[in-house]
Amino acid sequence: MNKDIRELHDALLDIIGFMSRPEPDVELMSDMAMPLERALLPLLVRIERRGPIGVVELADLVGRDYTTVSRQVARLDELGLVVRRAGTRDKRVREAEATELGREMADAIDRMREQLVSELMADWTNAERRDLARLLKRMAAGMNEWVARRKTEDDE
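== DNA-binding transcriptional regulator, MarR family ==
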């Protein structure tokens, strides 16, 4: 494997591992007025960003099975953080969308994560932060395109 690609892969694994650790989320939840189960945080944020979104698409985004995500979205609905309804394009698809309370909670999560990342990048220049964000967005776009192509090929 190309050394640069290997180092990138290792760095991404480390970042994913850090973001998946319970400690940052436990700290976030302890500061929240309405604590959530840890597994619901990333779902709420993704629904807020991408909603309305179907449960199958959401499950694909987070790498979990449909039935687990469906139960978790139902829990977010019970808490009043999302609403579920028939899809706008396909009435058979159930979509989730953040409520006002859900958007407020996602904003609070964003602010807390921003504080954490700001501490971790305190000695970075603004240009370095912008470059990292630009390059990661570019990589993410390529990954999303790859996934979309594979789905198109599977559907054919």
